[in-house]
Write a structure and sequence with these properties.
5-stranded parallel beta sheet, Rossmann fold, binds 4'-phosphopantetheine, alpha/beta
Length: about 160
């Protein structure tokens, strides 16, 4: 069985993430969307809240599961017999850091990273941009699913 992981902070999940998850699910027998800690970012939503939003917005993909992990991504891959990490690349600005992580993960464990080109419609989209817009009352309804939009509005309103 060919298994891949789509890792990320998903704080929160966007249409850009969902596009990559869908396309990965067409290439692998099983795809796990794993919420991991990115130590360089402060989060708006708890891990459980993020997982629930991912569950609700990816449940129509039958070979996609949702999980979380506190530790190295390669250790998660080893513990779950996952052969490949799938990452979306939006622009050349993503490339340096992603290449570095892919090389560290390959050298340390032999886990391959496969990069998928983000669909042009999502090339500017990131969770950080979505949070910034939402914080100042901007309309992000074209960037995230409805339940995520609602959760952002509630969080910004202090709920
Ligand atoms: O969505 P993000 O924030 O770009 O995702 C980055 C993430 C969470 C995938 C990355 O920070 C990660 O893999 N964290 C787990 C710890 C780890 O394995 N770090 C890489 C070692 S170089």
């Amino acid at each position: 069985m060919k298994r891949a992981v789509c890792p990320g902070s998903f704080d929160p999940i966007t249409f850009g993430h969902i596009d990559i998850i869908e396309r990965a699910s067409e290439q692998f027998d099983e795809v796990v969307v794993a919420v991991l800690a990115n130590r360089t970012k402060a989060s708006l939503f708890s891990v459980e809240e993020r997982m629930e939003m991912i569950r609700q917005t990816t449940s129509h993909f039958k070979n996609v599961k949702v999980d979380s992990w506190h530790g190295l991504l390669v250790d998660y891959c080893k513990a779950n017999s996952i052969q490949a990490i799938v990452k979306g690349l939006r622009a050349v600005t993503d490339f340096d850091y992603e290449l570095q992580m892919a090389q560290v993960n390959l050298q340390g464990s032999g886990v391959e990273t496969m990069f998928m080109a983000t669909a042009p419609a999502h090339s500017f989209l990131s969770s950080s941009i979505v949070k910034e817009l939402a914080h100042f009352g901007g309309d992000v309804s074209s960037m995230v699913p409805g339940i995520v939009n609602d959760a952002l509005k509630a969080r910004v309103a202090g709920k």
